[in-house]
């Protein structure tokens, strides 16, 4: 089935055709035909097909997984209310999903200029660096890089985070009451290392999140940089009008 010659670019025509199929024929999780199959069926070059699939991925309609194929994204993902305290573990449990955390790194580092500024500490002060892969029902969802001031959590050990949420450890073991967490998020693309961990294509759309958490004394006790799969997260915030 060759695509007709029009002024519209060929890959753009294929995007329209596949979008129509995704919306009316395919279901979330269905695998699309391979690049070779699409190329043969529509009489297009592999390069043109690849461009179309990249555009569908950018639009959040499909997820491309290395070595597996291209799958229809689940756009019914429930939203996270940013007006509430955020906990990945609690959110996944509320959604009926099984959360899992893989600790990829637990180390002690010295703060550089950027981390010192972000955490309100001095350059060279000791920090815990915790890199974690967050998953739900076996699906990789988010890569988190968390920094904590060592002076606040002197006795923190890796095993403490293997079976408990970070916030539970902070509040129950170290008696640091969380007052507020500020979070910024913006659209980005997956860098190679994160793409590999999240099982998505390099350059796939992701959400970059920056979270700064304060205790009751208005001290920063956590600074976290996260990369989340765009096809797995939606965020919602409520704005209230003052009369």
Automatic annotation (TrEMBL):
Q: Which SUPFAM superfamilies match?
A: Chorismate lyase-like, Winged helix' DNA-binding domain
Q: Can you tell which superkingdom this protein's organism belongs to? A: Bacteria
Q: Where are the transmembrane segments?
A: none
Cite the PROSITE patterns for this sequence: HTH_GNTR
Q: Which UniProt keywords apply?
A: DNA-binding, Transcription, Transcription regulation
**Residue ranges constituting the HTH gntR-type domain according to the UniProt record:** 8-75
Q: Which InterPro entries match?
A: Bact_HTH_transcr_reg, Chorismate_lyase_/UTRA_dom_sf, Tscrpt_reg_HTH_GntR, UTRA, WH-like_DNA-bd_sf, WH_DNA-bd_sf
GO process terms (BP): negative regulation of DNA-templated transcription
Q: Name one GO molecular function term.
A: DNA binding
- The protein in question is named GntR family transcriptional regulator
The protein's organism comes out as Collinsella ihumii
């Amino acid at each position: 089935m060759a695509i007709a010659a029009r002024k519209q670019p060929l890959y753009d025509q294929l995007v329209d055709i596949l979008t129509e199929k995704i919306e009316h024929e395919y279901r979330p999780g269905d695998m699309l035909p391979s690049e070779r199959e699409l190329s043969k069926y529509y009489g297009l070059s592999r390069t043109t097909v690849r461009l179309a699939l990249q555009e569908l991925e950018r639009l959040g309609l499909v997820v491309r997984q290395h070595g597996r194929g291209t799958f229809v994204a689940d756009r019914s993902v429930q939203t996270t209310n940013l007006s509430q305290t955020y906990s990945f573990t609690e959110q996944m449990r509320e959604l009926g999903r099984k959360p899992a955390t893989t600790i990829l790194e637990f180390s002690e580092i010295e703060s550089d200029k950027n981390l010192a500024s972000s955490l309100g500490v001095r350059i060279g002060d000791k920090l815990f660096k915790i890199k974690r892969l967050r998953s739900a029902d076996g699906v990789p969802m988010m890569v988190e890089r968390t920094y904590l001031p060592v002076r606040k959590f002197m006795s923190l050990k890796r095993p403490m985070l293997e079976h408990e949420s970070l916030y539970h450890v902070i509040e129950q073991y170290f008696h640091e009451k969380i007052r507020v967490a500020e979070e910024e998020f913006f659209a980005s693309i997956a860098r190679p290392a994160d793409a590999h961990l999240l099982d998505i294509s390099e350059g796939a759309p992701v959400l970059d999140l920056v979270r700064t958490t304060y205790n009751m004394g208005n001290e920063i006790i956590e600074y976290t940089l996260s990369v989340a799969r765009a096809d797995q997260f939606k965020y919602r915030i409520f704005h209230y009008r003052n009369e």
